[in-house]
Design goal:
The chain is an alpha/beta fold. It is 42% helix and 23% strand.
Length: 164
């Protein structure tokens, strides 16, 4: 496999959830560095704008959209805005997630556990549910599914996974 170049994703539209900081911000910067337009999604506009500024300073394109993956309506609006603005989504990176319980799992209050599940599981489902039709209409599905113990790469009709 050849290494990615600054133009290997030229013109591609890459949606990255949780793009305001950490792994999501790094993924967005790297995708933009390879020529993709990085659509930066998350709950905190200020963090997303910082990521967009870093992308712009490096010569890339970042598009900020506030979105809460725990809210289906918010994700549906995100998908509609991306399709309206760019006419397609080529890459979906489901990165948004929460953890760091602050103590033993058995001491976590049920409402806090619900927030973890709603972000890490339901949020992924909402994104796939909302973006798959957009991607299929455009030309096929390619996505990266992030998780604490696995990465799943979706392509066309198959699924490949790798433990890390």
């Amino acid at each position: 496999m050849t290494s990615p170049t600054a133009s290997s994703l030229a013109g591609q539209i890459a949606v990255v959830t949780g793009a305001g900081r950490g792994i999501g911000a790094a993924i967005a910067r790297n995708l933009a560095g390879m020529g993709a337009v990085a659509v930066l999604c998350g709950r905190r506009r200020s963090s997303l704008e910082s990521t967009a500024a870093a992308i712009s300073a490096a010569g890339g394109q970042g598009h900020v959209v506030e979105c809460d993956v725990m809210d289906l309506g918010s994700v549906e609006r995100l998908a509609a805005e991306v399709e309206r603005t760019f006419r397609r989504t080529d890459i979906l990176v489901n990165n948004a997630g929460i953890g760091g319980f602050g103590g033993p799992l058995h001491e976590l209050p049920p409402d806090s556990w619900d927030k973890v599940l709603n972000t890490n599981l339901r949020g992924v489902y909402y994104c796939i549910r909302s973006f798959a039709p957009v991607m299929i209409r455009a030309r096929g599905v390619r996505g990266i599914q992030m998780g604490p113990e696995w990465i799943e790469l979706l392509s066309g009709g198959g699924v490949a996974s790798a433990q890390h």
